[in-house]
Amino acid sequence: MRNIDLRSDTVTRPTSAMLEYMFQAVVGDDVFEDDPTVKALEAKCAAMFGMEAGIFCPSGTMTNQIAIKAQTEPMSEVICDQTAHIYQYEGGGISFISGASVYLLPGERGKITPAMVKSAIRPDNIHHPVTKLVSLENTSNKGGGAYYTSSEIAAIAAVCQDNKLALHLDGARVFNALLAAGETPQAYGQYFTSISVCLSKGLGAPVGSVLLGSHDLIKKARRIRKALGGGMRQAGFLAAAGIYALDNHVSRLAEDHQHARLLQQALANCVYVESVLPVETNIVIFTLTPQVETSAFLQKLAENNILALDFGPRQIRFVTHLDFTAEMVDQTVKTLTSMSF
Ligand SMILES: *Cc1c(COP(=O)(O)O)cnc(C)c1O
């Protein structure tokens, strides 16, 4: 039997319809900018978000790190929440690739405020690094899938504009955020100088992310991507999966959100669970009571063919996705309800 895999929304496999679409892609050498399917994906994504241009990359880590490299310089600084993926989960890439420092803010569930950003901007004084870039994560992974509304984003964007700072969006799960907020991507182009969108998370593509920005920024990004070894040749087969995902797998994210709420409800009634973070999208983060060993909990789940992620002291993360079906929700709820320690 196939495992119920709740470790991440990256574990999805391409559907047969997606594979069929991929096989039919017309491809070329994308380093020569000759791949029509890659170009179509980049243009489609840019148009969706009201940005000028896009560049297809192998991973969200690469799109984020290229955005940071293109909008900072050594001795400058990036402002972000202390739990941000760009800082916590990208292998120290900011120092390695950009030679920039990071100003970490104590946000609420991964979300920072305009006042916090203002307070983190360095005065013009040779002792300090030069503040260059603010990065938001929407939804916030460590924040349990919490999302920003566009009015919250607009207020932060205004601070950035007043202080001539670039504003990046780590939009690994931006479509989950938009769905939960009841908003569309069109408005985002006016707020952000760069946007990273992951195709290989909830959207179910096997590989890839797109970085969006102005023509100038994306031109610079193309150089950086090459230097990082991210220039791919007949990448159109992969880009086709992204096009298919954008056309077919966005509105169905509502199911994932519903499934996450069902898991939250089940967990709220389990005596071995101390607390569950409010569920806003497709991520469920909960804390076990001190009597329960995280490893014992994960092992018992695994014996019932359910995989989850150890997410810090006594914390567990579930992420719902395309390959987590309604029957699997029922089975998971049954298992959670019947477990004891
Ligand atoms: C997954 C993720 C990324 C990118 O991860 P890759 O595995 O490199 O594609 C970036 N930001 C957040 C918040 C993520 O969850």
Give the overall form.
globular
- Small molecules (ligands, ions, cofactors) in the structure: pyridoxal-5'-phosphate
**N-end to C-end Cα span:** 25 Å
* Percent helix: 40-55%
Low-confidence stretches: none
Number of helices: 13
How are the strands of the biggest sheet laid out side by side?
2-8-7-6-5-3-4
List the secondary-structure elements in sequence, H or E.
EHHEHEHHEHEHEHEEHHHEEHEEEH
Number of strands: 13
Which CATH architecture of the largest domain is right?
3-Layer(aba) Sandwich
Main structural class: alpha/beta
The CATH class of the largest domain turns out to be: Alpha Beta
Q: What is the H level of CATH, i.e. the homologous superfamily of the largest domain?
A: Type I PLP-dependent aspartate aminotransferase-like (Major domain)
How can the largest sheet be summarized? 7 strands, mixed
Query: How many domain units?
Result: 2
Description:
- With 341 residues, the protein is of the alpha/beta class.
- It folds into two domains: 11-248, 3-Layer(aba) Sandwich (Aspartate Aminotransferase, domain 2), CATH 3.40.640.10; 252-338, Aspartate Aminotransferase, domain 1, CATH 3.90.1150.
- Helices cover 40% and strands 18% of the residues.
- The chain contains 13 helices and 13 strands.
- It has helices spanning 16-23, 36-49, 60-71, 85-88, 93-98, 114-120, 150-162, 174-181, 215-227, 236-248, 253-268, 294-303, 326-338; strands spanning 4-5, 53-57, 76-81, 101-105, 130-137, 166-171, 194-198, 209-213, 273-276, 283-288, 306-307, 309-310, 315-319.
- The strands form three sheets. Strands 2-8-7-6-5-3-4 form a seven-stranded mixed beta sheet, with helices on both faces. A four-stranded antiparallel beta sheet has the order 9-10-13-12, covered by helices on one side. Strands 1-11 form a two-stranded parallel ribbon.
- α8 links the parallel β6 (166-171) and β7 (194-198).
- α3 (60-71) packs across α9 (215-227) and α6 (114-120) packs parallel to α7 (150-162).
- The chain is globular and about 55 Å long.
- It starts with a strand and ends with a helix.
- The model has no long low-confidence stretch (mean pLDDT 97).
- The structure holds pyridoxal-5'-phosphate (PLP).
- Pyridoxal-5'-phosphate is lined by residues 59-61, 64, 85, 137, 141, 170, 172, 198, 200-201, 209.
